[in-house]
Design a protein that fits this description.
It is a single chain. The protein has 9 helices and 12 strands. The strands form 2 sheets. An 8-stranded mixed β-sheet has the order 5-4-3-2-1-10-11-12, with helices on both faces. A 4-stranded antiparallel β-sheet has the order 6-7-9-8, covered by helices on one side. With 262 residues, the chain is of the alpha/beta class. It folds into 2 domains: 24-108 and 190-261, 3-Layer(aba) Sandwich (Rossmann fold); 111-186, Alpha-Beta Plaits. The protein is globular, with a radius of gyration of 18 Å. The longest helix is centred in the middle third of the chain and has 14 residues, at 115-128. α3 (76-83) links the parallel β2 (68-71) and β3 (89-92). The structure holds the ligand O=P(O)(O)OC[C@H]1O[C@H](O[C@H]2O[C@H](CO)[C@@H](O)[C@H](O)[C@H]2O)[C@H](O)[C@@H](O)[C@@H]1O. Residues 34-37, 42-44, 46, 49, 72-74, 138, 145, 147, 149, 178-181, 183, 217, 219 line the site of ligand L263DTV3. It comes from Zunongwangia endophytica. Belongs to the trehalose phosphatase family. One of its GO terms (molecular function) is trehalose-phosphatase activity. Keywords: Hydrolase, Magnesium, Metal-binding.
Length: 262
């Protein structure tokens, strides 16, 4: 079983490029890419996030040579619009909604049944959190993000307590965390790692295809942990230990690494 470790102790993918490129020349990897914090810089408002032209071009060129999937906490249509490529796969809502070329679509069936519960909890939380300035809601199909990047420091513990108390009333849902965001998700054994395993079967006929996954957040750890034949590459840090195999420092290094695959 994989062990997590201090990300600072992970080997740098950039410093080990020659070794990795050698490996990739004999094992063409499937490429899994997280969006926020990996392809697009973290910004104040979630609506404003986007890839720069260089990153767009790199991902486009990679998609001509590799099977690629973007795996995001964002809603499927949102992340698809932001990446803008038609011929690649996407997993949105933390893997609960998956889509790909030729009208391929796969929503998590259990999560589908929970849509009315999401409507209810969203309404309740909107009301209970209305007194806290700076709270931003982002409804995805199967998850609900509540952002607190713009909430003042002294209000943050109240923000978390309100959400915890409400979520406790809903055993079908659970609360996860991200970068200055709380994510309400279906309480189902499904996450980015499971979605990646599903996509590995979709993208390759091999039993255990060689894959790489780049991601920056705690939710990407589910994918790193599930990486069988392949490498997880952590972008920056998220404050906890990591199951990744390598690290890159930031988005600039993500670009540098991906360019080497072209
Ligand atoms: O899985 P990801 O593609 O990394 O998505 C994770 C969440 O990313 C977005 O929120 C984060 O980025 C925002 C824009 O930079 C930032 O303002 C926010 O504080 C971050 O948490 C997105 O809005 C969420 O829906 C995703 O779940």
């Amino acid at each position: 079983m994989k062990q997590s470790q201090d990300p600072k102790k992970l080997p740098s993918a950039i410093e080990n490029l020659e070794v990795l490129k050698k490996k990739f020349s004999t094992n063409k990897p499937l490429i899994f890419l997280d969006f926020d914090g990996t392809l697009a810089p973290i910004v104040e408002n979630h609506e404003d996030a986007g890839m720069d032209n260089e990153t767009k071009e790199i991902v486009k060129q990679l998609s001509e040579n590799y099977a690629i999937a973007v795996v995001s906490g964002r809603g499927l249509s949102d992340v698809r619009n932001k990446v803008g490529l038609q011929d690649i796969y996407y997993a949105g809502s933390h893997g609960f909604e998956i889509a790909g070329p030729n009208n391929f679509e796969k929503d998590n069936e259990e999560a589908q049944k929970m849509l009315p519960v999401f409507d209810e909890i969203e309404e309740k939380l909107q009301e209970k959190l209305s007194a806290i300035e700076g709270v931003r809601f982002e409804r995805k199909k199967f998850t609900l993000a509540i952002h607190y990047r713009q909430v003042s420091e002294e209000k943050i513990s109240e923000f978390h307590s309100i959400i915890e108390n409400v979520v406790e009333e809903y055993p079908k849902l659970h609360k996860g965390d991200g970068k200055k965001v709380v994510e309400i998700k279906p309480n189902i054994e499904w996450h980015k790692g499971k979605a990646v395993n599903f996509l590995r079967k979709e993208l390759s006929t091999a039993t255990n295809p060689f894959s790489i996954y780049l991601g920056d957040d705690t939710t990407d750890e589910d994918a790193f942990r599930e990486m069988g034949n392949g490498y997880g590459i952590l972008v920056g840090e998220h404050g906890n230990d990591s199951y990744a195999d390598y690290r890159v420092e930031n988005i600039t290094e993500v670009k540098r690494f991906l360019k080497e695959l072209l």
